[in-house]
Amino acid sequence: MRFVEKIRSSPIAVRVAPFFIFVLLTAAQGKFGADSAYWFYLAKTLVGLWLIWEMRPFVFEMRWVISWEAIVVGVGVFALWVGISGEWATQNSLWVKLGFSSSPQKFTAAWNPNEHFGSALAWLFVVTRILGSTFIVPPLEEVFYRSFLYRYLASQNFLSVPLNKFLPIPFFVTAFIFGISHNEWLAGILCGAAFQWLVLRKNQLGDAMTAHAITNFLLGIWVVARGAWQFW
Fold it and tell me: What residue segments make up the domains of the chain, in order of their start?
């Protein structure tokens, strides 16, 4: 409990620690056998829900907001994500093209529970993935990237930096880091820039959280409907 109180009392820790806990759980997916990827996703979704519950009283800007801009950006980013293709568009092939690898390396293994479980369990994990990426991932990522990282790159006293202040270096660096954390790095950079634009325009995180949620929800439906498991 003392550890939790310490995180709550630090404006940096309360925005950064939950994100990194979530990332560590993501890194553990599949490390204990192929099936563990799915059980760890279920576990990290529940942990993520608890983290958001703990963060909410201390991160005042983490409030959902629905707006027409959020809807347009969310749908537009989804279209970009599934529409951008080519040999340079994913990290699986980028490192080969740049000469850092002699053969394509999987950035992440395709996430397809149908290959590991019966129908009921497979659907449990599919629904968990869609719900987790829609309601858990956006608050954690938007708080870290848009509330903390963008402003911290401008000033260590990051809370003094307005959310709606455009800063070129933090803008492009944050979008780049967000992008390369995904296999679809090019779409990811454009996605990060779009969400950051929403924060700058609206002076709050809520619209970006909603846009992020719409993108991830539509992507989840696309993955299941089209069997496009490579996006997961």
Answer: 64-231
